Amino acid sequence: MLRYCRWGTIFSKQASGTGHRSDCSGQEDRIYKGLVSATVEQGTWVKGELSSDGKTITIPTGQNVAWIPSMNCFMEMQVLDYDEPSKTFVIDQSAQSISLSIQGKTITLDGTNEKRILGLVYSDSREWALFGDYSSVYTLFEEQAVDVPQNLVTENYLLKGKNPAQKDFSGKLKIGFQGNDVFIKGLCSNALPEAWVKGVRKENGNLCIPTSQFAGIYNDVYPVFFMAETITGNTVDIHDVVICL
To answer: In whole angstroms, what is the distance from residue 148 CA to residue 107 CA?
Structure first.
């Protein structure tokens, strides 16, 4: 569960850990990407230390995580406390670092709550930049994209249909068969044109493509899943896809 502040509003949502990756460089130093939710799209890394028992991560505050050209300043990672008189978050000058606990494949942000956050400030004014996280839990994202056989022979197909606005569209697909398995590239062309999905050829010759397949990571941040749905009034029916050849 990711809890965070954005533009002064508190949100709580389930979030995948794709933006919270770690890279080990030596036994003790680790570099973390996207620790603060607002920096995930920035591709920003911060550096911390892993304890000798491998159970605690300590990351110094004050690290620059984004540059804002229009303001000619950085956004800086700090621990902030809510200040009732000013109705905003202010830097806790005594907090020189933040810690995260490791338990198995789960990492938890320690010592934070709705009124004490790991947030961002502007480097010049030292004012809160309206972003912050608290009580965040980071888990490994272990979804695997479709593994396409190296010797797969494909043919080109033209897909025609209607988009959600009922406007005609067309696109190019690559389709290859191996036994009853079918591999298709191009169904996620808007986000991931190189992504493949896998289906099976039924006895009647039609192709059945299971929904909710992981297609890949868009822009190094967003997990993309192949989905199909039918909307009837206020009802949304998620289902597999059948293609008639």
So the answer is: 32
Going from the C-alpha of 158 to that of each of 14, 21, 170, 187, 229, the distances in angstroms are: 37, 38, 7, 11, 21
Whole-number Å distance between alpha carbons of 34 and 141 = 14
Report the distance separating Cα 75 and Cα 192, nearest Å. 30
Does residue 42 sit in helix, strand or coil? Answer: helix
Q: Helix-strand-coil percent breakdown of the chain, rounded to 5?
A: 0, 55, 45
Same domain, residue pair 84 and 118: yes
Name, in order, each residue with C-beta under 8 angstroms of 216's C-beta and a sequence gap of 6 or more: 145, 188, 192, 194, 195, 223, 224
Neighbours of 24 (CB within 10 A): 10
Q: How far is the C-alpha of 135 from the C-alpha of 113, rounded, in Å?
A: 6
Reported as a single tens digit per residue, the pLDDT across 107-122 is 999 999 999 999 999 9
Question: How far is 207 from 205, CA to CA, in rounded Å?
Answer: 7
Pairwise CA distance, residues 182 & 179, whole Å: 8
C-alpha–C-alpha distance, residues 4 and 129, integer Å: 13
Q: Which residues pair with 82 in a beta bridge?
A: 89
Domain that holds residue 198: 154-243
What the block records as the tokens of 196 is: 């493949």
Q: What is the pLDDT of residues 19-68, one digit of tens each?
A: 333 343 344 455 566 666 656 556 678 889 999 999 999 999 999 988 88
Is there a contact between 33 and 17 (Cβ–Cβ < 8 Å)?
Answer: no
230 belongs to a structural domain:
yes
The reply to whether 109 and 185 lie within a common domain is no
Q: What total of structural domains would you count in the chain?
A: 2
